[in-house]
Write a structure and sequence with these properties.
With about 300 residues, this protein is of the alpha/beta class. About 45% of the residues lie in helices and about 20% in strands.
């Protein structure tokens, strides 16, 4: 037998509507095409399936009713199969190499990643952390598919970027510090206070440039390339520091607490971006992750990461 899905679908439509004309209209084909399909099916099966009467339309024969049950079962299985395949297409899977500036990875990447993997359970995300240059260079080399970092134009050249947030600097201090009573703080208020520097390549240049632009050249009491070390040193009273993104807790690893205060001056802000190679956006995993990044930065949770007046 040479049975096709087309023949079975046309026969099922004719049986359902009890009319070749109505079946043809539903299928958007000619009545003759439906009639020919039914004839072909009857020929292949060697059975008479329909009674055709000009005045009464069509009706199923007893054999036709049995065949319709079986054909409808086949068509239902085909429809289910097509739905399953569509679901498989939509279910993104595979490895995704995600890079993030290490100072903000726990604050920014972790909540985005939680949302992403809960929706796309078949994706395995590999996390690469490093300083700004390392993240952008890794994207250029193809070692990272997509990265989150503060933008540095000279480093990110050649990459596609989407801005997630524009982030101003703020000052952190112990909760019992005299300046903690003020609603905001000026850079000039920091003169005479020991300062602590987040000593990462791009961070070092950014924070020192803010002081220099204000004519303030602090003698940093301590420097550390570890974000949490800076927060802990501030918390126990070793100095004050400028940072950007704010964690959702005032607790530090030392057990002390800090407070974040906006800066009064209109200082240069940083663009927090998601970066990728142009050809990478064609990958559904990369595109989906970028969409999750953009979506996260529309939430109230993300707005709490930024300290502003």
């Amino acid at each position: 037998m040479n049975l096709s899905l087309r023949l079975m679908r046309y026969f099922a439509a004719a049986a359902h509507f009890k009319s070749l004309t109505k079946a043809a209209n539903q299928l958007n084909i000619s009545q003759s095409a439906v009639s020919l399909a039914v004839d072909s099916l009857e020929y292949e099966l060697g059975l008479k399936l329909l009674n055709r009467q000009r005045s009464k339309g069509i009706s199923l024969t007893s054999k036709g009713r049995e065949i319709l049950i079986r054909i409808q079962g086949i068509l239902d299985q085909i429809d289910n199969f097509e739905s399953d395949v569509a679901g498989i297409r939509e279910n993104i899977s595979g490895d995704l190499h995600v890079g993030c500036f290490n100072a903000i990875a726990p604050i920014v990447l972790a909540p985005i990643l939680k949302r992403f993997v809960s929706e796309h359970t078949a994706v395995h995300a590999n996390i690469i952390e490093g300083n700004v240059r390392h993240i952008f260079d890794s994207i250029h080399r193809g070692e990272v598919d997509v990265g989150i970092s503060y933008d540095e134009a000279d480093i990110s050249a050649g990459l596609k970027t989407k801005t997630l947030a524009v982030v101003p600097p703020h000052v952190i201090m112990p909760r019992n510090h005299p300046l903690a009573e003020q609603p905001d703080v000026s850079l000039s208020d920091l003169i005479g206070h020991p300062m602590i520097l987040l000593d990462l390549p791009s961070s070092r240049q950014y924070y020192t440039s803010l002081f220099e632009a204000s004519g303030f050249h602090p003698d940093f009491a301590y420097k550390s390339g570890n974000y949490e070390m800076v927060r802990s040193m501030v918390g126990i009273g070793l100095g004050l520091a400028l940072l950007q993104s704010r964690p959702p807790t005032e607790d530090t690893h030392s057990g002390s607490k800090i407070i974040c205060k906006p800066l009064r001056e209109n200082l240069r802000k940083s663009r927090l971006v998601v970066a990728y190679l142009e050809q990478s956006i064609k990958r559904r995993t990369v595109n989906a992750f970028i969409e999750h990044c953009e979506s996260y930065f529309t939430t109230a949770e993300s707005r709490d990461l930024i300290v502003s007046r």
